[in-house]
Amino acid sequence: MNESLTLHPDGRTSLSMRRRLPHPPEKVWRALTEPGHLAAWFPAEVTFDGDRVGYGFGPGGRVTHREPPRLLAHTWGEDHLRWELEPDEDGGTLLTLTHTFSDRHGAASFAAGWHTCLIALLAHLDGRSPAAAPADMGRLHEDYVHILGLGAVTRDGGTVRVERQLVRPAAQVWRHLDGDRAAVGEPPPAPFTVPSVPAGPVTRAEPGRLLQYATPGGSVRWELGEGTGHGARLVLTCTGGTAAPDAWRSRAAEVAAELAEEI
After folding, report:
1. φ, ψ (nearest 5 deg) of residue 91
2. Backbone angles phi and psi of 61, in degrees to 5
3. Which part of the chain is the Activator of Hsp90 ATPase homologue 1/2-like C-terminal domain (predicted)?
4. What is the average pLDDT across 38-60?
5. What is the C-alpha to C-alpha distance for residues 29 and 201, in angstroms, rounded to an integer?
6. In the predicted structure, residue 242 carries a pLDDT above the cut 80
7. DSSP 81-113
8. Per-residue pLDDT at 136
9. For residue 172, which of 91, 95, 125, 150 sits 20 to 30 Å off, Cα-Cα?
């Protein structure tokens, strides 16, 4: 497999992506370090000034390792990017990108973004016109959720929790779930429920952000917050004896897949 996640003891996560490029390391090195080449594929406007790195917007960074044409590593705000180049026996390069960050559940968004950038990098090295961004970025994101094992549910005693990065903004997710039909004291809209968990009345509703309703011995809470990229972060929590972890994991996956297909 060319992609993997590593969870570190300090709570940070590293995403590693490996690609073979049919170009020598020296040529790939120039594409990684020279602003004129970076502009063709990197997702920001990069400038190097000594060990300082500027990205055209937001926080800058610093070079932490620079060993031409084998290793380049630099920070981007709190994140760290490490580019390793190994020559292969055919005169090409094995490129390994390792991106280290704090938001594990955002890893699929990072992976989908870098996947697209690396395709553009190869086109640039080949001398081809860069391809347009994939029209099915939502589907690509969901593919990486599965590849990286990000669809898991956690259970702590009687509480089940599912956290899932979505590919659409909170307002669109809310409409998709029929959230505008939610009213305190009334049954929740069906998309917020699963057949195995009896749904009681809505106890709290904040349009575009939160819906909570009672269940036998507990509650279900859907919360939409700020996520990685352009989509919302869903946190789904169910408490009580009818928590049903498999049902909520499946429901969150269904919602994510449905949203990925929406235009």
Report:
1. 85, 5
2. -160, -175
3. 23-123
4. 95
5. 60
6. no
7. EEEEEEE-TTS-EEEEEEEEES-GGGHHHHHHH
8. 84
9. 150
Cis ω for the linkage preceding 69 (within 30 of 0): yes
User: Which pLDDT does position 241 carry in this prediction?
Assistant: 67
**Distance (Å, rounded) from C-alpha 163 to C-alpha 104?**
10
Q: Which helix (H) or strand (E) holds 33?
A: helix 25-33
Average pLDDT of the residues in 151-169: 92
**pTM as predicted:** 0.92
Q: Encoding tokens for residue 16?
A: 């590693």
Tokens matching residue 246: 């498999």
- Reduce the DSSP state of residue 17 to 3 states and report it: strand
Unique residue bearing structure tokens 């917050």: 225
Q: Which domains does the chain have, with CATH numbers?
A: 3-146 (3.30.530.20), 152-261 (3.30.530.20)
Tokens of 190: 């069906």
**DSSP β-ladder status, 210-215 and 79-87:** unpaired
